[in-house]
Specification:
Length: 114
């Protein structure tokens, strides 16, 4: 019997600093904002945060699972439209057995009509 894989959506956000921040501020306050948003959704029982987000190449990647593809992509779309999140985000539909990031179906964000 083959192992069961779970759908995983990677949310790739360009590592662009937020302009005009006070001295000493994190240049990427949107990372904490997205993490808080995802934890709130997880607490509501909508999705699961698969792992800690991490920097990958020129993007910061967040991981969500625990729901159907469409629901996970809707979450990714909401992340892309949060205030302060840099434009250019995209999602990758993958699974929890993928050996590398970015391997799977790429989806532009935000989704139209969501």
């Amino acid at each position: 019997m083959s192992p069961v894989t779970t759908t995983l959506v990677e949310i790739h956000v360009p590592m662009l600093p937020t302009p005009d921040l006070p001295d000493g501020s994190s240049p990427y306050p949107w990372i904490d904002q997205v993490e808080d948003f995802l934890v709130d959704l997880e607490d509501e029982g909508g999705v699961e945060v698969h792992d800690e987000g991490e920097e990958y190449g020129d993007a910061y990647v967040f991981f969500v699972t625990g729901a159907a593809d469409e629901e996970l992509l809707a979450v990714a779309s909401r992340v892309a439209t949060l205030p302060g999140v840099p434009a250019g985000a995209f999602a990758v539909v993958s699974d929890d057995e993928a050996e590398e990031f970015g391997r799977g179906r790429r989806v532009a964000l935000p989704l139209s009509g969501v």
